[in-house]
Amino acid sequence: MAEPLKVGLAGVGTVGAAVIRLLEQGHEKLAARCGRPIEVVAVSARSRGKKRDINIKKFRWFADPVALAADPSIDVLVEVIGRAGDPAKSTVETALAAGKPVVTANKALLAAHGHKLAALAERQGVALNFEASVAGGIPIVKTLREALNGNAFTRIYGILNGTCNYILSRMEEDRISFDECLREAQRLGYAEADPSFDVEGHDTAQKLSILASLAFGTKVDPAAIYVEGISSITLADLDAAAELGYRVKLLGVAVRTDAGIEQRVHPTMVPRESAIAQVMGVTNAVTVDALGLSPITLVGPGAGGTATAASIVSDLADVARGFRTPPFGRPVARMTAIRKAPMQRHEGGYYIRLLARDRPGSAATIARRLAQQQISLESIVQRHEIRAQGSGQPGRSNKPVPVILITYATSEDAVHRALAAVRRDRVISGRPQVIRIEKN
Ligand SMILES: NC(=O)c1ccc[n+]([C@@H]2O[C@H](COP(=O)([O-])OP(=O)(O)OC[C@H]3O[C@@H](n4cnc5c(N)ncnc54)[C@H](OP(=O)(O)O)[C@@H]3O)[C@@H](O)[C@H]2O)c1
Q1: Are 213 and 219 in contact (CB under 8 A)?
Q2: Secondary structure (3-state) at 278
Q3: How many CA atoms lie within 13 A of 169 on its CB side?
Q4: Ligand 1: which atom is nearest the Cα of residue 304?
Q5: What is the pLDDT of residues 5-37, one digit of tens each?
Q6: Which protein residue has the closest C-alpha to ligand 1 atom 5?
Q7: pLDDT digits (tens, 9 = 90+) for 371-415
Q8: Which residue's CA is the nearest one to ligand 1's atom 18?
Q9: Rounded to the nearest 10 degrees, what angle do helices 27-34 and 305-321 cross at?
Q10: DSSP designation for 376
């Protein structure tokens, strides 16, 4: 048997510990598949003495992950520390500069510095593999970079954050509010103590920036993404979605349009019968559209130590076999700056929920304002509440009336202009809820 591939592991937390376990459990099989064993030889973490459920004493210890990255005793560095800055960044840079391949699960690092790191890997002629950085155990990076690389991608969209999908699923299935679901997700360990990064869509945006780059050959640029989270979604929206044949998901969407690449993260109504609508709980899913290819949807675990570690081990197996591709699927010199399609020019169907003041002419005013922007309606649902006994007109109350509109394809700009006019007309109460519709 050939020499083992010697792994330096920077980080032995949830993912790092699972990498150690998987490499030990799969030792023989991996060696048979790759033609050589893969073995962790050295590790680094913040605290050597921390109680852990794996034994790290048998590995060489490095208090400084950068020193680990530079050490001649390792052939490849696995970075599972996390975050965009140091020590993760300098650890990865040091390994690449020393001519060592790198495997990382760090989406934040790739979103912020992916292009520069890919350039460094390319100059050094080594691999930079990051399957685990997007959708944990789902092999979407390899799918875009290798399996489907003969295809022209037109759109890629997915459920990339398990916390948000768990919250939306629980709200719908158990009829509980966003706040209650969030508290429960925190109790179960699905949501962070500070959940805003997840629920406001920023985690999804980092992952989408990596997928868009792989699909469209553009430089990773999370700043080019329009981001909106799920905290404003109510049970009324989920009920209306169900009634109208949709389900609400937080999607990251990247589409090639005539105006450039549109990248957006927002709550989205998807047809209830679509593959992506069936994905409930913490599970992730990604759908890929390419010319001449029916959409392909990959569904699976988006997080968790073992699922994420499986992607890392697969990346390590490529290194052990000597297989290498450009990190983002094409040479860095062929990656272009993103031509960002402005969100105002987004075109699609819209769900709009308004509270119309219950007085004559409200409905006509709303209809006129929409017509002025050439917005046509696919459906209208108006819910009159039964008036309390003895309070005047039968069947009517003075309370605002929920009105739900589904538009045919129109532009973001037109919807904003129509709703601004309706608000100026004072025929509605509060802010309208707007959810974009994504057709499959
Ligand atoms: N958890 C998941 O399900 C998941 C899924 C997909 C991707 N990821 C990505 O995988 C990476 C790791 O996530 P994780 O959940 O395993 O994190 P984690 O459990 O917090 O582990 C982080 C590890 O890094 C070490 N570390 C932190 N700061 C350090 C420093 N300054 N110097 C040296 N070591 C340091 C920690 O040391 P101590 O052990 O001594 O504290 C710990 O071993 C992140 O990029 C994350 O985004 C995670």
Answers
A1: yes
A2: helix
A3: 17
A4: 3
A5: 999 999 999 999 999 999 999 999 999 999 999
A6: 303
A7: 999 999 999 988 765 444 444 454 556 789 999 999 999 999 999
A8: 13
A9: 30
A10: P
